[in-house]
Design a protein that fits this description.
- It is built from 9 helices and 14 strands.
- It is 33% helix and 32% strand.
- By secondary structure, it is α/β, with parallel strands linked by helices.
- It starts with a helix and ends with a strand.
- The strands form 3 sheets. It has a 7-stranded mixed β-sheet with strand order 10-9-8-11-12-14-13, with helices on both faces. Strands 2-3-1-4 form a 4-stranded antiparallel β-sheet, covered by helices on one side. Strands 5-6-7 form a 3-stranded mixed β-sheet.
């Protein structure tokens, strides 16, 4: 998969060996970290950043801010880039996000940093998440590899919420299962299910751009396109079938919005895996889950993040 690594190499300016770094920031409260992190990831993705990282800092007064450090190709001038980004941030969706500073980053092996930033990562009992350029290393040969191109921050397998979902999924999936992946993103969950023995996958996402990314990752993993139906759709709206497993590694509000429709989407002995929520948010979710006719079979915590596997309380 050397060609995949070359994509990162092309992002580096070969003549000058530098790129622009832009730092964004926004205020952060106790209850909106996951939402703000996803928003910052969106900023990096749709502003054509060639790489990014998100950090949290706090001052002596106990005030927290979320920072996005995003890198851009040096093919345009820094003033032009800054103007484009300032215009971009005028969108109401990005209210509260501001540019802290812009500067040149020089003489660093950008492609090597990316290569090292995504080492093979064991997940659960038998899975290992790998960037495609690690395929020939044969790391963890006893585990089932899930190859994911790390183009975005969420859904790569390195985020705690995705690792929770993968672990809960691995324990539940059986040969012949049909999985419905809501908010599929990179496709990592349905790809894992198919490699673990599921027969068919149905994947939905409200963002059309993620569908192409999921297809790309399917190809990396040798998944036959005939066993997966990919579509642009809003949660479970319009879905009338039933599946063995439903997965949703999304935020609290869309998870809550979907709950009233989850029971009817599951076969009698089916289960639903929910992730993407913080430990604090879990209390709200659990109360609504139980009122929706579902009961928790297993829950997991990883750092600040929480997820669960639930089954029908009756029927």
């Amino acid at each position: 998969m050397q060609d995949e690594l070359e994509i990162f190499k092309k992002a580096q300016d070969e003549k000058n060996n530098y790129w622009w770094t832009v730092e964004f920031s926004t205020a952060l409260s106790q209850n909106d970290r996951s939402t703000k992190e996803e928003l910052m990831s969106t900023v990096a993705a749709i502003s054509n950043s060639i790489g990014s990282e998100i950090t949290v800092e706090h001052n002596d007064l106990g005030e927290y801010r979320l920072f996005l450090k995003a890198h851009y190709n040096s093919s345009i001038g820094i003033d032009e880039l800054a103007a484009e980004l300032e215009y971009f941030l005028k969108d109401p969706a990005f209210k509260g996000i501001e540019i802290s500073r812009c500067y040149k980053t020089s003489n660093q092996p950008w492609e090597t940093q990316h290569y090292d930033a995504f080492p093979p990562l064991p997940v659960g009992k038998n899975l290992v998440v790998m960037a495609p350029w690690h395929e020939k290393e044969k790391a963890y040969p006893e585990r089932t590899p899930i190859y994911i191109y790390p183009a975005t921050a969420f859904g790569t397998g390195y985020h705690e919420s995705t690792r929770i979902a993968l672990t809960l999924l691995e324990e539940a999936v059986k040969a012949g299962d049909v999985i419905l992946d809501v908010g599929t993103g990179t496709g990592i969950l349905f790809i894992a299910a198919l490699k673990l023995g599921a027969d068919k996958a149905i994947a939905r996402d409200i963002d059309p751009t993620t569908i192409e990314e999921a297809k790309r990752n399917m190809n990396l993993n040798g998944i036959n396109p005939k066993v997966c139906t990919l579509s642009v759709a809003d949660l479970l709206k319009g879905f009338r079938d039933q599946v063995n497993i439903l997965t949703a590694n999304i935020l609290l509000n869309p998870n809550l919005a979907m709950l009233p429709d989850v029971r009817r989407a599951l076969k009698p002995k089916g289960c639903a895996i929910f992730s993407g929520m913080t430990n604090v948010e879990s209390y709200t979710f659990i109360s609504v889950l139980e009122s929706s006719g579902m009961t928790i079979e297993k829950e997991m915590k990883f750092g600040d993040w929480w997820g669960c596997r639930a089954v029908k309380a009756w029927g």
